[in-house]
Amino acid sequence: MTERPHLAVIGAGPAGLAATVAAAAHGARVTLIDSATEAGGQFYRQPAAALRARRPQALHHDWRTWERLRDALGSHVRAGTVRQLTDHHVWCVERRADGFTVHALLGRNQEEPAGERADAVLLATGGYERVLPFPGWTLPGVVTAGGAQAMLKGTLAVSGRTAVVAGTGPLLLPVATGLAAAGVEVAALVESAAPRAFLRRAAALSARPGKTAEGAGYAVRLARHSVRTLLGHTVVEAHGTERLEAVTVAALDRDGRAGPGPRRRIPCDTLAVGHGMLPHTDLAESLGCRLDGPRVQVDDEQRTDVVGVWAAGENTGIGGAALAVAEGHIAGRSAAARLRGAVPDPRGWAAAAKARTRLRAFAAALDTVYAPPAHWTEQITDDTVVCRCEEVTGGAVREAVGNLGAGDVRTVKLLTRAGMGWCQGRMCAPAVAGLVGCAFDPGRRPFARPVPLGVLAQEPAHPTEEGPS
Ligand SMILES: Cc1cc2nc3c(=O)[nH]c(=O)nc-3n(C[C@H](O)[C@H](O)[C@H](O)COP(=O)(O)OP(=O)(O)OC[C@H]3O[C@@H](n4cnc5c(N)ncnc54)[C@H](O)[C@@H]3O)c2cc1C
Fold first, then answer.
1. CA distances from 26 to 133, 336, 346 (A)
2. Which tens digit of pLDDT belongs to each residue from 55-78?
3. Radius of gyration from C-alpha coordinates of the chain
4. Concatenated DSSP letters of 19-31
5. How close is the Cα of 127 to the center of ligand 1, in Å?
6. Which end of the chain is more exposed for a tag (fewer CB within 10 A), N or C?
7. Cβ–ligand 1 contact at 11 (below 6 Å)
């Protein structure tokens, strides 16, 4: 029997799971690699086994899809067609003459190197949250909306007693309802999108009755928990000395400015804030894959322009878990066929392709509704910290732009150190781009994770294809 071709799937969220299951079912040998200790990604993040959660589904949507993916993954693992590597933090994928080597770091301190050889790679690394700065955003008690959600789903814990959920984007809805259901008093949901933005796109948004029903479900739950929803508003300041004590909220005018009108001060000990999501493109970029704006560019089969590299899910554009599953399915089937030397027949994934078209159109409509306030940079005072790692303020960035002539994020970085710290600009680059007035560019980073010098100095890591690593 000829050996099955080997596909490495990086990311075990909805996209990576769907891709793994599809590729394994169609003749590939798959290694599914993720930095987390459990499969599921952001959407299907699972509580730690030790917590023995009795009803984990209570915090989730579309649990049936998770059960289907989880069970199919389990069957393939038992059959030996899939190997699952958890706690593997991939820092680089190396292109070689005979395929690829996926380099990862293991262990608590992420210092132990491991390498995985594969004939092809499928990137399903998802996205990350964008948080735009405002005065007080570095106070303890201010967390990202997704972070609050991840803590709730992963540890069944909440970060405070009284929360404000703020920013923009559909993620705020499950965060606010999830916190309220967990017993937190949600004092307000502050969404910068104005009611007219929803009305303007009403036709496109109602084209997906399932999503309309989901939205209505959130509205009912918010009402049940007496959560005040402020559309067309923004948090202009977080207050506190040692930690967060209150936020000030202002209404936005038609131009997206926090107007001079009355401002409300809302006492709270937690602010869960997020301004949308951005695709994770590091690994794709270091492989030389072409980007389309901030996302990895793919064709109808989810292939990147680098031979042997597929991408699926939120790294190809933010669109939600259902879209990630559809893209993952197509990518997995395409990769399995191409690795066998066959030309795949798209009729085999017609249903997924149809879903992908519909869901991408819906995501594009959502994108035009949910956007940070047009003049959000005006909220950044000169003493607001913009780059948390290097403690660079809004005033320092403005000086680099106004007095020293910086016209892009990279020059600001060289002049101020903004973006040079641990996160390598992942947090601050959108804010710096806004202050400079240039388009956000994910920026090329050679490594997706910080790598100890000792690992870089070692001989190339040896493949761990046989046996667990
Ligand atoms: C913090 C957060 C919370 C969210 N909460 C919700 C929610 O409550 N409701 C909702 O509808 N949508 C939510 N979303 C959006 C939703 O998660 C996505 O639509 C969906 O999960 C996308 O699936 P995906 O497979 O593309 O990516 P993900 O689910 O993000 O999966 C990507 C996987 O790749 C892994 N990974 C990434 N980089 C590496 C690397 N270098 N090495 C190893 N592994 C890596 C990650 O650990 C992760 O498991 C959230 C997103 C985020 C970022």
1. 47, 6, 14
2. 777 766 788 898 999 999 999 999
3. 22
4. HHHHHHHTT-EEE
5. 6
6. N
7. yes
